[in-house]
């Protein structure tokens, strides 16, 4: 059959000058996908109240639509021209933003709202298919064949640069204006991009015989399958990273997307030539190993920094998987069918994402968000074995080697699973801290308040730093012997800048102010938190050592007053109070006097010991606690110790503040 295809005319300009305009169009076009990536899971999960499976379904609908539209996008790009295909993709992207807005208008009916949102995501998937397929086809038509891998890598870099910038922009827009801002950006930015594409010259189509989609599919399925397995980590990060951070109490989950995208871009900037120079299969195989390590690190991460490093390794590894396998795929078809070849090849990624996102959502629902990364890492191992076997069909020895490699990798991951599970059980004790899914299954309103008020508002109030709020919360939990949530908040305290030595001192201090048994229970919780973070004895305070200077006059005045009041009734209490507390415990330098006072006041409020608040709040304010901070402490503790305890303390705190010299 005689059809039209793109003319094989190499642009005489330098490689970068030829490709940068196309990359600019891809960047702006994909920005609308990037802004939704970190917030769409939160909107569907928290805003509309659906499960992680529905989150995966909504995310996967975009990839499913991309899969279905790939052949059409490839045919259209080859037959009508890449520029026209890009324009059509931008118009479809704008239409998806309008569907987002329609979804918001019927938000009171969550089922109808998410159904329209699914349509919007599907529309965006078709738009993405046209934009990226046509852009790569456009780039391949204007450069020589020796730069095939470089074209795929550079155009993809523009896409992931949009993801990197879109993630924080989307998070900021969502926090400030809600999902309506995401919908407006999605509707308007693609229209503005049409102005960028208008002056770019189109590649002139010429008549030439063209392969059918079935023929092209048969030629590219082997590298396509390898690329598909290698892309599951991308879906795991883009769909569930924000929920993983929120579930672990870590803030700024959008950083996972940015870390992923930045590492992805850097790898493509500095190593885009690798697939052309060393061979696409070898480069892809090596990168799959890096991607596997990144997913495993995110799975095992006890701190957000390690999770971000895992996301970065995943991005770095995935960066050259697609162009590596692409270098294997493109030469298998004639030049006039390159658009269709890229469409068929990329369809494997769409298929993987369309199936993987909801499947990983089911994994998250049944086994927890943590296990999503494990499953994704195992899939990386499958990809590596598949690539080895693809080159070893004549060789039984190599096939055996590949299977041994796969078995070893899976076994290592399963051993790590047992280790991580054991650590989780030990840290949380007999009673595990309920997940958000557990809370929603029993008390949906409680889950709403926890997400919206406690995490979404209370911890972000400016009157008290996140570090101070962690100290207050840990002190309250120890004082009330509430150890179920204590490991979570000990980890959060460390993330917020509280040092291990300071946590150690808080536990020791509260042994005297809330009881020995409470401190021992806290030790059991903290021991495994410290172990999971490799916190050793060198980071903890010594049992004894140099002390802070003592205000002898003030201490003598306090001791005299207390001795006169209670010395004849309980001389041992007076002696221990002076010798152990105020001449030893309060002088230990590893916890600043202001923080030690903050711990004491928090414990007193949390346990309703209002009679002791006056002295210790005055001492706290002498040590640097401000009036505004004191007020925020009470407001914070209302959530963690209950409103009655907070209101019992409020009159005492008011009296102390009003009587202090101004």
Task: Give the quaternary arrangement of the chains.
Answer: single chain
Count of strand segments: 2
Helix/strand/pairing category: mainly alpha
Q: Which shape, going by the Cα principal axes?
A: elongated
Helix count equals 29
Beta-strand proportion: under 5%
The strand line-up of the biggest sheet is: 1-2
Describe the biggest sheet? 2 strands, antiparallel
Q: How is the topology of this model organized?
A:
Layout: E1 2-6, H1 15-36, H2 40-47, H3 52-80, H4 82-105, H5 110-142, H6 148-177, H7 179-197, E2 205-209, H8 213-230, H9 232-247, H10 254-271, H11 274-278, H12 280-300, H13 304-319, H14 321-329, H15 338-367, H16 369-390, H17 396-428, H18 436-442, H19 444-455, H20 466-479, H21 486-495, H22 500-514, H23 516-532, H24 552-566, H25 571-582, H26 593-606, H27 613-622, H28 627-641, H29 643-659
Helix pairs in contact: 1-5, 1-6, 1-7, 2-3, 3-4, 3-5, 3-15, 4-5, 4-7, 5-6, 5-15, 6-7, 6-10, 6-14, 8-14, 8-15, 8-16, 9-10, 9-13, 9-15, 9-16, 10-13, 12-13, 12-14, 12-16, 15-16, 16-17, 17-23, 18-19, 20-21, 20-22, 20-26, 20-28, 21-23, 22-23, 22-26, 24-25, 26-27, 27-29, 28-29
């Amino acid at each position: 059959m005689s059809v039209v295809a793109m003319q094989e005319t190499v642009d005489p300009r330098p490689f970068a000058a030829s490709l940068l305009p196309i990359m600019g169009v891809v960047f702006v076009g994909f920005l609308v996908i990037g802004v939704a990536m970190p917030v769409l899971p939160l909107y569907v999960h928290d805003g509309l109240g659906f499960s992680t499976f529905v989150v995966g379904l909504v995310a996967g609908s975009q990839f499913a639509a991309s899969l279905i539209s790939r052949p059409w996008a490839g045919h259209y790009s080859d037959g009508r021209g890449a520029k026209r295909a890009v324009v059509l993709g931008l118009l479809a992207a704008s239409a998806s933003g309008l569907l987002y807005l329609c979804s918001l208008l019927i938000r009171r009916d969550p089922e109808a709202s998410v159904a329209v949102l699914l349509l919007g995501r599907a529309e965006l998937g078709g738009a993405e298919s046209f934009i990226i397929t046509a852009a790569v086809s456009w780039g391949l038509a204007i450069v020589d064949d020796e730069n095939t891998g470089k074209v795929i890598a550079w155009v993809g870099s523009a896409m992931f640069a949009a993801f990197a910038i879109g993630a924080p922009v989307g998070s900021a827009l969502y926090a400030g204006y809600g999902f309506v801002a995401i919908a407006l950006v999605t509707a308007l930015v693609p229209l503005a991009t049409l102005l960028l594409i208008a002056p770019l010259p189109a590649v002139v189509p010429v008549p030439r015989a063209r392969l059918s989609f079935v023929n092209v599919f048969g030629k590219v399925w082997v590298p396509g399958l390898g690329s598909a397995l290698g892309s599951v980590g991308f879906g795991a990060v883009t769909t569930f990273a924000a929920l993983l951070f929120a579930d672990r109490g870590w803030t700024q989950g959008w950083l996972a997307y940015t870390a992923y995208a930045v590492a992805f871009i850097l790898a493509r900037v500095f190593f885009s030539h690798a697939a052309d120079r060393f061979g696409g299969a070898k480069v892809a195989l090596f990168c799959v190993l890096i991607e596997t390590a990144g997913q495993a690190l995110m799975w095992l991460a006890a701190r957000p920094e390690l999770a971000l490093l895992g996301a970065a390794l995943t991005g770095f590894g995935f960066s050259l998987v697609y162009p590596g396998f692409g270098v294997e795929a493109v030469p298998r078809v004639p030049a006039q069918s390159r658009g269709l070849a890229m469409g068929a090849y990329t369809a494997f990624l769409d298929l993987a994402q369309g199936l993987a996102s909801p499947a990983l959502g089911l994994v998250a629902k049944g086994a927890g968000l943590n296990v999503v990364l494990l499953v994704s890492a195992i899939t990386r191992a499958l990809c590596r074995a598949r690539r080895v076997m693809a080159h070893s069909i004549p060789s039984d020895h190599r096939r055996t080697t590949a299977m041994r490699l796969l078995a070893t990798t899976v076994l290592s991951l399963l051993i790590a699973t047992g280790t991580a599970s054991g650590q989780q059980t030990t840290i949380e004790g007999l009673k595990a801290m309920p997940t958000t899914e557990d809370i929603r299954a029993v008390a949906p309103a409680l889950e709403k308040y926890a997400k919206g008020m406690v995490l979404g508002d209370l911890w972000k109030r400016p009157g008290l730093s996140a570090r101070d709020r962690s100290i207050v919360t840990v002190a309250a939990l120890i004082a009330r012997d509430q150890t179920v949530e204590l490991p979570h908040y000990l980890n959060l305290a460390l993330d917020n800048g509280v040092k291990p030595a300071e946590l150690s001192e808080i536990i020791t201090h509260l042994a005297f102010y809330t009881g020995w048994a409470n401190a021992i229970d806290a030790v059991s919780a903290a021991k495994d938190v410290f172990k999971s973070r490799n916190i050793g004895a060198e980071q903890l305070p010594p049992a004894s050592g140099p002390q802070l200077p003592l205000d002898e006059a003030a201490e003598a005045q306090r001791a005299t007053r207390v001795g006169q009041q209670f010395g004849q009734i309980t001389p041992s209490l007076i002696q221990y109070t002076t010798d152990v507390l105020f001449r030893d415990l309060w002088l230990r330098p590893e916890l600043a006097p202001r923080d030690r006072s903050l711990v004491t006041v928090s414990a007193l409020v949390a346990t309703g010991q209002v009679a002791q608040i006056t002295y210790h709040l005055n001492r706290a304010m002498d040590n640097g606690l401000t009036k505004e901070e004191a007020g925020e402490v009470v407001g914070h503790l209302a959530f963690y110790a209950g409103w009655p305890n907070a209101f019992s303390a409020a009159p005492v705190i008011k009296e102390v503040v009003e009587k202090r010299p101004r």
